Amino acid sequence: MASLPPKASLGYQVRIAHRAFDRLLAARLAPFGLKAGYWYYLRVLWLREGLTQKELGDAINVKENTTVAMILGMEKDGLLTRKRDEIDRRKMCVYLTPKGRDLEKKLMHIAPEINEAATKGISKRELEKCLMVLHHVSENLQTIDF
After folding, report:
1. CA–CA gap between residue 133 and residue 127 (Å, rounded)
2. d(C-alpha 12, C-alpha 139), whole Å
3. For residues 118 and 25, is the Cβ–Cβ distance under 8 A?
4. How far apart are CA 68 and CA 52, in angstroms?
5. Phi then psi for 5, rounded to 5 degrees?
6. pLDDT tens digits along 6-60
7. Which residues 6+ apart lie within 8 Å of 71 measured at CB?
8. Per-residue DSSP letters for 80-139?
9. Taking the alpha carbons of 48, 53, 56, 58 in that order, is the dihedral positive or negative?
10. What contacts 35, CB < 8 A, 6 or more positions away?
């Protein structure tokens, strides 16, 4: 069996970077009383409301049961509301409340600030290549059945 040291493991390095992003994001959202997990849902909903719960989960690449639990928490915290789809009454569509919508102005500066800190000392060309490679890796992994 071949050894794969952590420094040479793509999965390990991506996980470490993700955890660092998450810790910083959680610290930046805490003063607003928000959980870090809310961020991903808010980002999608700021761009497009009225998604079904499944569409919202798919946009974030999260299973539907996790999405439902997060939506219930966000609904309880007054950030969003759910309404039955007018065409297919079985589906629930997700909409931001005024409180959830107003957070965009207060929070959207956080993402560029964290990204800027994370990419300090990395050239634009290196960053573009990194993003392209990570996108390709994600696409490859999505084709694997497990």
Report:
1. 10
2. 18
3. no
4. 11
5. -65, 150
6. 888 999 999 999 999 999 999 999 999 999 899 999 999 999 999 999 999 999 9
7. 41, 53, 56, 80, 82, 94
8. EEEEE-SS-TT-EEEEE-HHHHHHHHHHTTHHHHHHHHHTTT--HHHHHHHHHHHHHHHH
9. negative
10. 26, 29, 73
